[in-house]
TrEMBL record, chains A, B:
Gene3D superfamilies: 6.10.140.190, Winged helix-like DNA-binding domain superfamily/Winged helix DNA-binding domain
Residues annotated as domain Transcription regulator PadR N-terminal: 7-80
A Pfam family assignment: Vir_act_alpha_C
Organism lineage string: Bacteria, Bacillati, Actinomycetota, Actinomycetes, Kitasatosporales
Official protein name in the record: PadR family transcriptional regulator
Record InterPro entries: Tscrpt_reg_PadR_C, Tscrpt_reg_PadR_N, WH-like_DNA-bd_sf, WH_DNA-bd_sf
PANTHER family membership: TRANSCRIPTIONAL REGULATOR YQJI, TRANSCRIPTIONAL REGULATORY PROTEIN
Transcription regulator PadR C-terminal domain: residues covered: 92-175
Species: Kitasatospora terrestris
Length: 187, 187
DNA sequence: AGTGCCATGTAACCAGTTACATGATTGC
DNA sequence: GCAATCATGTAACTGGTTACATGGCACT
């Protein structure tokens, strides 16, 4: 399980409430780990009883009170211990790839709009990464350790999106080729 | 849910037993969808009662009997209907990326062996893809529709591994740089 | 009047993982 | 004798998703 650790890393970078964590998981951290607010609240309570985080109740006016969480010493140690454990290989769930193979048993042309939709999504994400990189790391040669590590992860996201865009173009070309030569497999 | 559909696609490509499906999920299909045999047996039974697949009991001598499953007409229609539904965006789970950011709160040098282990795993996988591509698609210009779609998915896997290798080199360079300049953040 | 943001939660369900169980055959 | 391969399953658990609930403030 790594959601605990993802939350701890986020709290080490900056303390915050469950709500704030949920919005971070929708933005930056969401690039490589997703979580809903329900999950986050549940895990935060568990980590509090484990002593990995502490809460500070903050009253606000004009908006609801919030509970600001911070990582504790034991929490930091838990992260360090987890870093020393080997990561199991990622379990892949690539639904679009399954669909592309499935297209052989239906009409490949039908998949084109879906692939185009994905392409547009990835293009938009790449744009967001690039503008985010410009904004958050305007001078990539002067970064402290934490920023360098954040930056190299962001570079990974950018390269992933570029690769994916190129591949989706390859997929689209293949689908268009198949649409032009109507073989109609077993239908 | 897409495990049903991944199994159906695999059975459309070729009928097989739960055991055979499990080994396919360890090889080719495992590139973009994973499943254990327990899961596969459970889903096959559900799909049988739904009429998406049919079983044929095959007695064998020298080895245990097996139940060979095939996709039915309704199964094929279920795949076609699923193809027309939009795919939800993939939920990403990239544990290594979390660890790289976590390294800022521990010793970045400690992560180097782990990243090298990953690099070796991805390099081995790329090799396997490349030899598999040579073996299964020796002449990529003469492929039928099904093979073309399988091939474009394989190309995606190859490009993904290449990109990942390049990124892991980038990560390693970053970690080595940080190890040379001991900043030691909050320890 | 309606939408969106801030903020926290409960409850039910479903998918996926881990552990355990059985048993014959083939090869080292 | 031991491990690997073929072959199918049960049971318990855990992590993640979906639906539902509450309520004030700011903006259009």
């Amino acid at each position: 399980m790594a959601l605990e650790h993802a939350i701890l890393v986020s709290l080490l970078e900056r303390p915050g409430s469950g709500y704030e964590l949920a919005s971070r998981f929708d933005r930056s951290i969401g690039r490589f780990w997703t979580a809903t607010h329900q999950q986050i609240y549940r895990v935060l309570r568990r980590m509090e009883t484990d002593g990995w985080v502490v809460v500070e109740h903050v009253a606000q006016d004009g908006r609801p009170d919030k509970k600001v969480y911070s990582a504790t010493g034991p929490g930091r140690q838990a992260v360090a211990a987890w870093l020393r454990e080997p990561v199991e290989p990622e379990t892949v769930r690539h639904e679009l790839a399954v669909k592309i193979r499935a297209a052989a048993f239906s009409d490949p042309a039908e998949l084109i709009p879906e692939v185009e939709r994905h392409r547009a999504g990835h293009a938009a994400l790449l744009e967001r990464y690039l503008t985010g990189a410009d904004r958050d790391f305007p001078d990539p040669d002067v970064l402290d350790a934490q920023e360098q590590l954040q930056h190299v992860v962001l570079r990974g996201g950018i390269e992933y999106e570029r690769m994916t865009l190129a591949w989706l173009d390859d997929v689209l070309a293949t689908l268009h080729r198949l649409a032009r030569t109507p073989s109609n497999p077993q239908d």
